[in-house]
Prior knowledge:
The complex is a heterodimer of chains A (about 325) and B (about 300).
Chain A: H1 4-7, H2 16-19, H3 31-35, H4 39-45, H5 49-52, H6 54-61, H7 66-77, H8 88-92, H9 120-123, H10 128-133, H11 142-145, H12 150-153, H13 156-160, H14 189-194, H15 200-204, E1 209-213, E2 222-226, E3 229-231, E4 239-244, E5 268-270, H16 281-284, H17 287-290
Antiparallel strand pairs in A: 1-2, 3-4, 4-5
Chain B: H1 2-26, E1 30-31, H2 33-39, E2 45-49, H3 53-57, E3 65-66, H4 86-95, E4 103-107, H5 113-129, E5 133-137, H6 140-147, E6 173-174, H7 176-182, E7 187-190, H8 194-197, E8 211-212, E9 216-217, E10 224-227, E11 237-240, H9 243-254, E12 262-265, H10 272-282, E13 288-291, H11 294-298, E14 306-307
Parallel strand pairs in B: 1-5, 2-3, 2-4, 4-5, 6-13, 7-9, 7-12, 12-13
Antiparallel strand pairs in B: 8-14, 10-11
Amino acid sequence: MECIACHKGNKQGKTKEDAHKGRIARPSDNIYTCGICHIKTGQNYAKALHYTSLGQREGVKHRFSAEELKTFDKKVFENSCRSCHASCGSCHVKSPPVSGITTGLLQGHKFIKKNEGKTCAACHGGRVYPEFTGEYGGTPDVHYQKGMMCNDCHKKQEMHGDGKVYKSKNHVKDRPKCQSCHEDKGNQVAHTIHKDKVSCQGCHSSGQYRQCYSCHVVHGSKAEPGFILGLNPRDKKTLTTLRIIPTVRNTFEPNGIKMENFDALPNYWDSAVHNIKKRTNRTRSCDACHANREGFLKQEDLIKDGSKANDALIYDIKPISK
Amino acid sequence: MKTMRLLKALWVSLFILLPATVFAQGIGPIISTDDLAKVLKNPNVIVIDIRKVEDYKSGHIPGALGIFYNNWAPGIGNLKNEMPENDDLIDLLSANGIGPDSTVVVYGTTGTPPDRVDVTRVAWALKYAGVKKVSVLSGGFEKWAVREQREVSKEVVKPKAKPYTGTINKGLLVKKDYVKNQIGKTIIVDAREPAFFKGEQKLPFVAKNGRVKNAVNLPTIQVFDKYPPGEHMEPCCWTYKDVAALKNFASGVVGSDLNKEIIVYCDTGKVASAWWFILSEIMGFKNVKIYDGSMEEWMKDESAPIEP
């Protein structure tokens, strides 16, 4: 195949300017470019979350009134959130642009099947990937220690979609679960006691992971390490690791959106952090939680002027009665 | 007759095992790519690639295990490059089938100054754990694969796990209070570059300029040479200087009393590992320790003596 098959342009052009007339820099932004041959993958990918970016919309839309949602869809979602979608080439040819910066071609212009360290890590490298490799402190995630990479848990179907449109990843049934590989054999007292009460990462997250504060506030965002345990906002029953989702009250003010229902959603969300370890402070000693309350979300630690829904995530852990 | 058969079996076993043992014994603390190639198939030698998993998977020295650097020197609390908790370290060694009597060769990359000292930091963690024979590859993966175009493999090597039985060498690591107490009594080596030693420069995460009071300077830049040497040659990597040159340079600063206690530090405890390795493993100083907290911790303590 010649370059122009995908990138178009003017084959007869004698100068660079002439030759580049009509050139398409990112041809796979149009799924049809790849989908003409990779029919099924293309069809699925057109509906996949990596392409639709619908998860970002779902994560915030319940803060809006019906009118505000219309404004959001028109002014913010299409112009901002959707501009972040991954094209086929973002994973298979050239690392995806993040804030306009890309680390370049993955391997010349060769199409490669996967290179998670450059592709997944480019977009998920602010928080998840460095947690996984231990670059934010703590030893690497136990799965990375064993030589596992993103695709060992997050399978092809998760990347390309299954042909259905989902509102967010939380609506997808077949997602990676610890239990898919780690069967509870009932031989660990701690596992039996905490079953359905604490998520696996609640105990097995090795410690601090990245928390982002003040995103979209005038002075820009700030990332700091932190470890937060609280109730899962999706069920309010399970204790789990929480990550700050830094939407603040004036995030969308420049777009004329006040977020009338801002307090409907909390600022802390359950997060399957990627710094899993066999041993942690909490597996080494019950006192880490039951006496010292290490990392537990407290009223005084809540972000300033945050959502009123944050209060419901605070869990008052009791000492062990002996 | 039975005795004869037993003797014959013993001779055959010796014949098979002897070369492996001799090779394993012949590995010095710094190993060249030529020497590593000779012992690569020796079952007593465990080669560890400490680059990131994705780099390991894209090609490594055949037979090497991939155990990324951060496993050996995680950030803990507010300090970078710390010794892992003992149980974590033992888990790591057990999972990778490394025993106290294994001969371990560590390699990584040598492109940047921090890269160059990764291997000695891992070697220090292995020695701390109680592994007796640890070597580092001179020139790293670049010399092996890029310059010398030796064989590389993409096959992920699965280690044979076995419980680790070694004993932790607690004496190789010292804490801040110990260093404070030893000022004036022992040799304290600052392994940073002269501008940092003199207090003219500091890294952003170090609270103040300066050095530990009474420290002497052994800059780590003195440890490596570009390879290949020569102004007109394009370098691929960095190798260790000639052992005689290293000894000569070090003895000029710390003397030659092998029984004298030496504490080495830098900014985070990583760079210090290069001179720790040379003093302890090559020159034979018997009592060399690393202050792991180093300047990152020391300079936050108002009561820690500093100069200038």
